[in-house]
Amino acid sequence: MKHRIVVLGAGYAGANAAARLAKRLHPSDTQITLVNADAEFVERVRMHQLATGQHLRPRRLTDVFAGTGVQVRIAQVTAVDAERGTVALVEADGPGEIAYDQLVYALGSTATDHGVPGVAENAHSVADRQAALRLRGRLGELPAGATVLVVGGGLTGIETVTEIAEARPDLEVSLATRAGLGDWLSDKARNHLRTVVDRLGITVHEHTDVVGVEPTGVVTDGGRTIPARVTVWTAGFGVHPIAAATTLEVSATGQIVVDDTMRSVSHPDVYAVGDAASAPGVNGAPLRMSCASGIPSAQLAADVIAARLTGRRVPPNTVHYAAQCVSLGRRDAVVQWVTPDDQPKPSALTGRPAARVKELICRGAAWSMSHPTWMLPSRRRHVVPGEASLGRRPA
């Protein structure tokens, strides 16, 4: 019987893991199934562009993985039974189930309201394609002079507010951030960010904690009201609750706790990658939720699984950071160079050159997803008898 590997989620992390496993393991004794709720790959790092009316190229997963040996199954994951080794699904024709010997959990993250009242009812987000399209429709309804407030001063918030301000210069656009604007950046990068924000006419409410969202604006911890016809919530992301409902060991954030090979510390037949994993990075600091973490962690997990199943040496964990890239509209950006453990260096690339670098990175990530096995040499090795016990014993 074939060794069954199931990958949950076809974002940057899940897609890369499935494709790499297909290049590492022989199809005669392994079966790789990729489960995803959407039939198309969602280019998540461009959701702020989608929200402002830009067109994104569709990429159907069945086309992407045609000829790779990866079986694509379009279904919503509703539960994981880590003791039985099964995943509960809802497909077009009703509920179903799939069993696994090895599971790669890559369901990623979504927007979270952190318990702030009114976010779900009154705020938009760019956490996924449906949310970005809803925001797109709402922005299209706004007349000149209408107010738009983006809450959250992280990478997503900054990219969203600058994209909206550039696309709709007729709107009154503002940003509310709990800390100072870009205060994690180097002096050079932070100064450039402020210059761009001023040029785009964005009002910034720094050191402002939003404690409530209303239909006509937000309320701050000081009791002040910031008016807004449209509020966009980008103040953090959380993981899907599925893992926390299992017997898998999870962190306080609901992420699956893994070792430095991306394997669950409680269930050796489960690996978690990308945003879904609480994984140690350089110097033990946890990897942050990002594409920069998702792709290399997925590649590592795939190589580790293949090595263990084929009786080869497990590769070392070399996941680290090089830069943080922040688009500031379509013609400007900041590329902040960082240390391997994600601390900013004094140097940064800014302006149009940085925008070109950011665009190349985004295109490269999408291209690697659309051509998941093109540059990776095929080394499809057979599972060594007895090594399959490293996962769940086939039923």
UniProtKB/TrEMBL annotation:
Keyword DNA repair set for record: no
Q: Which domain of life is it from?
A: Bacteria
Q: Which UniProt keywords apply?
A: FAD, Flavoprotein, Oxidoreductase
Q: Which ranges carry the FAD/NAD(P)-binding domain?
A: 4-283
Q: Please tell me whether the keyword Oxidoreductase is annotated for this protein.
A: yes
* InterPro entries with a match to the protein in the record: FAD/NAD-bd_sf, FAD/NAD-binding_dom, NADH-Q_oxidoreductase
- A Pfam family name for this chain? Pyr_redox_2
**Cofactor(s) it depends on:** FAD
Similarity section: Belongs to the NADH dehydrogenase family.
Q: What is the protein's given name?
A: FAD-dependent oxidoreductase
